[in-house]
Amino acid sequence: MPTPSTRDVVIVGGGHNALVAATILARAGRSVLVLERRDEVGGATVSTSPFRGVDARLSRYSYLVSLFPTVLARSLGLSVDLRRRRVAAYPPLPENAAWASMLARVAERVFPTLVEPLRSREEMRRLIDDDATWGALFETPLSETLERTFDSDLDRGTVLTDALIGTFAPADDPQLRQNRCFLYHVIGGSWNVPVGGMGALSGGLADAARAAGAELVTDAEVVAVAADGRSAEVTCADGGRYAARNVLAGVAPAVLSALLGECSRAAEAPPEGAQLKINMLLSRLPRLLDASARPEDAFTGTFHVNEGYEQLARAYREASAGEVPSVPPCEVYCHSLTDPSILSGELRARGVHTMTLFGLHMPARLFGGDAATSKLKAVEATLRSVDSVLAEPLEDCLLRAPDGAPCLESLTPPELEAELGMPGGHIFHRDLAWPFAESEEDVGRWGVETQHPNVWLCGAGARRGGAVSGIPGHNAAQAVLAAC
Known about the structure:
CATH topology of the largest domain: FAD/NAD(P)-binding domain
Number of domains: 3
Number of strands: 17
Helix content: 25-40%
Largest sheet: 7 strands, mixed
Number of helices: 17
CATH class of the largest domain: Alpha Beta
């Protein structure tokens, strides 16, 4: 077999971060090859038509955008319209001037650093320049801050949800996983709707990468990576081999370790996703128990369902014990109320709407035995939870496909692992890390380095990863350019 030609960079996985890295590196004159195991690039940021015979393109996995820096989008030439929802949340988000001021201060100072080399913990603390704020967000469990700041159980719970999306932890977790998740959710500004769906975002990024000269190959499952610090070779399932000077991994760190033939680090717990995703099409919006709220308003923003502070705590205890929460906390929103373009003209004329549901405290462990039965139980319990705040059953509002099937699909963590290669179905690839260096040797680095000098993380599992941000892709590209 002939020796494969050498690229400057081979990127394993074609998610949105990989496409960002590919564009930056190709524009810098590097030869770039992206290998994606699925039949399309985009990873979790894709749109699909899941219901046969129904012309609607839904954001199947991820659904909102917040952390994508405007300056990065402009530099990539990305023209996707990120539209702000006219209603942020129902019930309305709690009002607290001091709290809002504290978060604004942190966002203003921390967010720009996400696309810079890592600062030390002390440098980040000096940048924030407020000991009370630092203690509240970076040193003590979020529960203490919420209980001190808000009197209402509902207000505490509504704020806490930002700390639990994709993270299975209690409010008082001493490891502060909830604090880290909360930080990433609040420093990027409002969570916006990508017009045209997530596929518009990944499609725009793919176009930018190709225009820059990157080669994108689909149906190319990588099964092994070998690297000696100076060169590397990537092997695919079909026997194809690709030589590279550098390898970027858009896959999770645990997946990269397996590709390298390494054992996962014993000190790091296996990733575990904690969400139930349900995608629906509705023939009409359901009526609410709260007659003072119009469904068109309530479902435009994030509609919080049974997400009180104590309800979240109870659901966590039940899930920790291996039981589907009796009243699953969840949140829904209707993309089509802000962006109807994802529906055909015929569906729009009929008053059809999308509904996206994200269920909290649904860890992968709940689906480890009889997965089908557990999934059915989880979906039924979640729909009952939604029905508890409606004036009519949600099932009565579901659109039916031409074959009579209800337009509802659900995805559990194990299914996300099978479809997207996310270990444990963890949407952040592993627990989120602080956005600063936690060791002296990492100060000044980009948070994408591995133990191999020419292998880099460029996905959600990098430090300052997670969410639909493009930040890990940008940082991996900068690390490669600085090293070469």
